[in-house]
């Protein structure tokens, strides 16, 4: 769905779900596990995604992305856990997730200064969808995670509104969805290339349960070009002096703008509890490391993992009906899920780079897209 106001030079794109991109999105496969049909987080049954992409004039390059674990997260809460691998960033609502062991709201990703507006939008959507909230039912604690997109975006404009986010959540769908410089990833960069939203999935063997692990990342990492490794090939070192970002005016890279951030959301249909999901989320760091990321001091590297099959049904108070489904404790299954989470995270980071295109934004700053054809030649020449 696309909305354009030509007279005011505003292009507002709401990407709900795309259907014509079956099969693996990343143009190569690696690792021990096969990808799901969509090679994305929505390979996990029930997971929904939507993007809001805002491009306005020469300065606005931002947006938001919503991820829902199912169609009714308030009444069908899912087991969940979070990890602050490096905490120079924000993901709201995590204290209660860690305390309760479940997630009961949509997850929204956006830019740093629009976190409060996005949270307001989540609340508006919740109040509209659930009329008992704040009357005879509990009140939600929105889950909103940010990355700093000020290199390409006029972040002070705070272009994402509460109304945008409420509409975004209402449009989330299962199935395929866009990646790269869309949604919350519109103004993001990584390894001095354009980056943004990436996603991937891995399916473990039937003998280990046949479960799926899906990952979605918003990659805005600040690691240097030379650190980038793609499936073991030192791509960044080989492209060290090429396609460097353009800064027409001297810009001091500082704080989060320099160090960057990454938000990683992991979904699985394995019926893991919050303790196991915390361990699963930690494996995302291994996938990061395989790409060359080191998690700088100024980086906000925040992970959230949830299980779509371990459901807690709501009543009007804090009491919950524990799920009857058994928690897998088999070593083969747990180890396979760990491996799939690391591998899918690695693939999702690559996906963000492969899908993002060259973009010019605030002040004429330009980040080039990864030269995909040349990188594929490097991979094929091994």
Determine the fraction of residues in helical runs and give it as a percent range.
10-25%
Shape: globular
* Rg over CA atoms: 20 Å
**CATH-derived architecture:** 4-Layer Sandwich
Number of contiguous helices? 9
Strand content: 25-35%
Give the ordered list of helices and strands.
EEEEEHEEHEHEEEEHHEHHEEHEEH
Q: What top-tier CATH class fits best?
A: Alpha Beta
Label the structural class. alpha+beta
- Output the CATH homologous superfamily: L-amino peptidase D-ALA esterase/amidase
Biggest β-sheet strands, sense, barrel: 7 strands, mixed
Describe this structure in words.
The protein is α+β, with helices and mostly antiparallel strands. The protein has one domain (14-380): L-amino peptidase D-ALA esterase/amidase, CATH 3.60.70. Helix content is 24%, strand content 27%. It has helices at 94-100, 115-129, 162-170, 235-238, 255-259, 274-282, 284-291, 331-355, 372-380; strands spanning 2-5, 10-15, 48-56, 60-68, 76-87, 102-103, 107-111, 143-147, 189-190, 193-194, 197-203, 212-221, 260-268, 300-314, 320-321, 359-360, 366-367. Helix 2 (115-129) packs across helix 3 (162-170) and helix 7 packs across helix 8. The longest helix is centred in the C-terminal third of the chain and has 25 residues, at 331-355. It is globular. The N and C termini lie far apart (42 Å).
């Amino acid at each position: 769905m696309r909305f354009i106001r030509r007279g005011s030079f505003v292009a507002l794109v709401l990407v709900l779900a795309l259907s014509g991109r079956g099969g693996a999105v990343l143009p190569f496969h690696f690792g021990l596990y096969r990808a799901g049909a969509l090679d994305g987080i929505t390979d996990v049954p029930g997971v929904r995604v939507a993007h809001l992409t805002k491009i306005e004039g020469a300065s606005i390059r931002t947006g938001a992305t919503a991820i829902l674990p199912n169609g009714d997260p308030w009444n069908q809460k899912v087991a969940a856990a979070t990890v602050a691998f490096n905490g120079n960033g924000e993901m709201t609502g995590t204290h209660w997730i860690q305390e309760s062991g479940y997630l009961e709201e949509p997850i929204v990703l956006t830019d740093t200064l629009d976190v409060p507006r996005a949270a307001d939008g989540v609340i508006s959507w919740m109040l509209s969808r659930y009329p008992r909230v704040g009357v005879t039912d509990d009140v939600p604690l929105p889950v909103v995670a940010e990355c700093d997109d000020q290199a390409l975006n006029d972040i002070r404009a705070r272009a994402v509104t509460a109304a945008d986010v409420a509409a975004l959540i209402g449009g989330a769908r299962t199935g395929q969805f866009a990646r790269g410089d869309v949604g919350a990833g519109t103004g993001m960069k990584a390894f001095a290339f354009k980056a943004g939203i990436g996603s991937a999935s891995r399916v473990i063997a039937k003998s280990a349960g046949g479960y799926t692990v899906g990952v979605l990342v918003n990659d805005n990492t600040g690691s240097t070009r030379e650190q980038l490794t793609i499936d073991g090939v030192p791509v960044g070192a080989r492209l060290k002096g090429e396609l460097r970002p353009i800064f027409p005016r001297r810009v001091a890279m500082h704080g989060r703008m320099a160090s960057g951030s990454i938000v990683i959301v992991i979904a699985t249909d394995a019926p893991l509890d919050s303790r196991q999901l915390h361990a699963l989320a930690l494996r995302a760091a291994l996938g990061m490391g395989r790409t060359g990321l080191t998690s700088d001091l100024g980086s906000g590297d925040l992970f959230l993992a949830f299980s779509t099959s371990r459901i807690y049904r709501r009543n009007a108070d804090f009491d919950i009906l524990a799920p009857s489904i058994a928690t897998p404790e088999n070593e083969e299954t747990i180890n396979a899920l760990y491996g799939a989470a690391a591998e899918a995270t690695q693939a999702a980071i690559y996906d963000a780079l492969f899908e993002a295109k060259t973009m010019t934004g605030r002040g004429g700053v330009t980040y080039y897209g990864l030269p995909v054809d040349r990188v594929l030649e490097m991979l094929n020449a091994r």
